[in-house]
Amino acid sequence: MANDDLNLDALFIGDKAENGDLYKDLLDHMVTEHLEWRKNYMVQDAPLISHDDQVSESFKATEQKMKSVLQELSDRLQASSIPWHSPRYWGQMNSETLMPSLLAYSYAMLWNGNNVAYESSPATSQMEEEVGHDFACLFGFDKGWGHIVADGSLANLEGLWYARNIKSLPLAMKEVKPELVADKTDWQLLNMSVSDIMDCLEQCDEEMIDRIKEKSARAGGDLSKLGKWIVPQTKHYSWLKAADIIGIGLDQVIAVPVDDHYHMDVSALEEIIRSLTDQHIPILGVVAVVGSTEEGAIDYVDKIADLRDTLKQEGIDFYFHVDAAYGGYARSLVLDSHNDVIPYDHLKEMHYEYHVFQENKEYLSQDVYNALVHISRADSVTVDPHKMGYVPYAAGGIAIRDIRMRNVISYFATYVFEKGTEAPALLGAYILEGSKAGATAASVWVAHHVLPLNITGYGKLIGQSIEAANRFYDFLKTLDFTINGVHIIAHPLVTPDFNIVDWAFNIENNQNIDDMNRLNHTFFDETSIYTGSAYDKEFLTSHTDFAKPDYGDSPLHFVESCGFTGEEWQKAQKVTILRACILTPFMYDKDNFARYAGEIKTAMEKYLTQALQRIQTEQ
Residue 423 has what pLDDT? Predict the structure, then answer.
């Protein structure tokens, strides 16, 4: 099959279980194969569970107990779960998951591989090694490496772990083997690039490397000398936890202002860095976000990398991490069928040729394109298959630009893995986690083999999500209601960089932000599990607050567009936003969207009516 003929509709169970029989047939086939595998191992061995055991009263009672508990599980899940699969769900970062990944996960669980060591999981450990290579290739790391972690929070923690240990090595080299860094001042040592540090380390034998690592940040000293960890105001909260756990400390974390489209302000970043370095305070690292969790905003990765290159000429260098937990898979949109970067002036025609979008439009701006392309200039990247990879939880991931970096955080437990082992996939020594599910690796591996990480595969799936988001954004731009004489207008936040669309409802001529916040929060309550079963909701969404302590004055432009003054914003200091992460693989189609748009509008009117009634009752 030619990849440009890939039909995504065949890869999902479907909103109405349209492919349910296919799912059951494939699952039955795979389970049968596993059962036969058990039977055929050492066929001379006698069964250990006899027929008499199986017909005994205790066996039957236990069987019935198991069935009863499983039925209770089914009842509870049906009564209290969220219909992520439905085109009526426009909320959190979850959606229909890929059928092949679900099948792979279910099947691989029967083998119960533990990917921490090759000897306990030869099949799935090799798959994870290959998935890590996929991550590195996706981000343009020709000499890179990667692996699966539980989630983006752990991947971010690992990224900071890399930064802390690597940037502390020059000081350790000065103490253990000073000739490696001869004639360098401490300031110069703290501003060495990752590549230069790895080159120095490569000159050492194994014993010397271990001695240097013993004197690095892992020993606990010199942490305060490493400098500041800089993140945008749109940072994920996991960065604060990571700074706490790694020992850098929250006082060392600095948030850079974002612009009114929620991108890191690169001018402000430069000003902060220069102010710190003028005081002889080094920069440990900078984080760019590709797909912020609140807005889906994509930072100017290229401009941040350019700034690092400029500062390097002045003797200032820092570790560069891209938190692409949400948006990392979007880089498949800029890679052709050979995994080469597509020039921007050819992008639109290539997307149309490969049916990435239904309509022949430029859905990726030049800025977003540049950011995705230049992820390859980062030192490490977080990516979550369980988000835009459309695979089951828990599947995060991290990729590093230089495979040599992994030795900086390595630990070897002799009962699990040894240095010099001949195992083809040695993983556990180089990662944060211990025991980990082989089923996760199988799930991601299958997804990557069914959907290549370029425009012929994942590009199509991500493209459908982006196109659906743009349809929803256009829908909101002209949306208003008149309810019992009250005119309510929808105000979209910004044109989406990716596939998150934020908006707020406001009553016409309302001048009080607190009143608008109350309306939107109450509307969210009416669409949520807090006011009844999610299964009965005709439209579901999520919400968040943009508060001044976190966002500064970046929401000012939006609140002014809703009709409020700057003085009112300073008084309220937060705005409640409705938020839709649009992962649905079906609403990209203009006919499908048109069919559901009317239903969604009717449901919104219903919940706005209920929200107004609740507010009036409570006043």
Answer: 58
pLDDT for 420: 56
3-state secondary structure of 380: strand
Please choose, from the candidates 352, 286, 359, the residue with its C-alpha nearest in 3D space to the C-alpha of residue 317: 286
Indicate the length of the chain as a whole number.
Answer: 619
Residues forming the active site: 415
Token duo for residue 356: 């990435």
Residue 224: per-residue pLDDT: 86
Closest CA to 148 of 390, 440, 375, 391: 440
**CA-to-CA dists, residue 99 to 175, 228, 236, 253, 478, angstroms:** 55, 44, 29, 41, 36
Strand (E) or helix (H) holding 253? strand 253-256
Between β-strands 574-581 and 145-149, what pairing exists: parallel, antiparallel or unpaired?
Answer: unpaired
Query: Quick one: pLDDT at residue 580?
Result: 97
Q: Which amino acid is at 178?
A: P
Indicate the CATH number for domain 463-618: 3.90.1150.10
* Amino acid, res. 347: L
Lay out the sheet containing 228-232: strands in order across.
Answer: 145-149, 396-400, 380-383, 319-324, 283-289, 228-232, 253-256
**In one letter, which amino acid is 437?**
A
DSSP lists the bridge partners of residue 506 as 489
Q: Which residue positions in the chain have pLDDT lower than 50?
A: 414-416
From the list 91, 98, 25, the residue with the least C-alpha distance to 443 is 98
pLDDT at position 151 is 94
Q: Which of 558, 596, 583 is nearest to 469 (CA)?
A: 583
For the chain, the structural domain boundaries read: 463-618
Q: Which residues contact 532 (CB under 8 A, 6 or more apart)?
A: none
Question: What is the C-alpha R_g of the chain?
Answer: 26
pLDDT of residue 509: 94
| pTM score | 0.95
Pick from 241, 103, 581: nearest CA to 387:
581
Per DSSP, what are the bridge partners of residue 274? Answer: none
Return the residue matching tokens 């979209």: 492
Helical pair 122-138 and 438-450, crossing angle rounded to 10 deg: 50
